[in-house]
Amino acid sequence: MTVFYFSATGNSLAVAKRIGGTLISIPQVADTAGLNYSDDVIGLIVPVYAFTTPCIVKRFLKKVRWQADYVFAIGTHGDRYGGFCTDLAKFCQKRKLRLDYAATLKMVDNALIGYEIAEQIRTLPSKRVDEQFTAIAADIAARKRFIKPMLQSEKRRNRQIKMLRPLIMNPRIGRKMIRADAKCTRCGVCAAVCPNGNIAVTETVKIGKRCEMCGGCVHNCPANALHQRGEKSAARWRNPEVSLKELIEANNREERR
Ligand SMILES: Cc1cc2nc3c(=O)[nH]c(=O)nc-3n(C[C@H](O)[C@H](O)[C@H](O)COP(=O)(O)O)c2cc1C
User: Which residues of 223-233 are buried (b: 16+ CB within 10 A; e: fewer)?
Assistant: First the structure.
């Protein structure tokens, strides 16, 4: 089994580790031409961004070809998944990429503008992550064919978010949204953990024009010196099943800048 994943704060990597197989980090391959993979089972485990798939994952899906007897996708998210699964199924169908199963798994929401992270952590037990994971793992083991539909109640919100996407998922906006405060030690972790190699640390932290808005730099800063404009609090999240070293290994693109 080959599992592709993208993770800024560890939720998707934690799920990928539990699923197992050969794990391939999408930022390490997303900009490579001629990607061809074949295995008995292929999986995709990524966060839900604005009810859809992150830009870096779409970039990867536009390049990759895969052959497998069964392909599954899991979107990790924190609150509402909107049309994530149906949207991904359409995207794959258009590119003639096999997709048999798409589900979502609710975890801590790491969106700093929308949610207070300490509250997200406090209420995490109510999301019953283990139970959700067990059900999805059983579906995959049974090779279930199922694309989780959008909830009727989310259709209107999904349309609104779709219209706002060019604004909220604009790769140029991040540089205006993130700033370092006086606690910054210029350690370079933010640059190393950025999935787009979009951060340079000199006398200051400089964010370039390819920001995914993933929050990896802000959540993983060892000095908690990075802040997103409009964040609800200075509380931060990294999934306890994933180390900073693992996230750096997964996302580091510095050598390719
Ligand atoms: C830019 C951005 C947009 C997000 N949009 C959604 C969303 O539409 N719905 C949702 O439930 N969670 C949303 N989230 C929360 C993440 O999907 C969730 O925390 C995910 O598990 C993070 O995965 P990771 O730790 O692997 O990066 C968003 C997070 C970010 C940073």
Answer: eebbbbeebbe
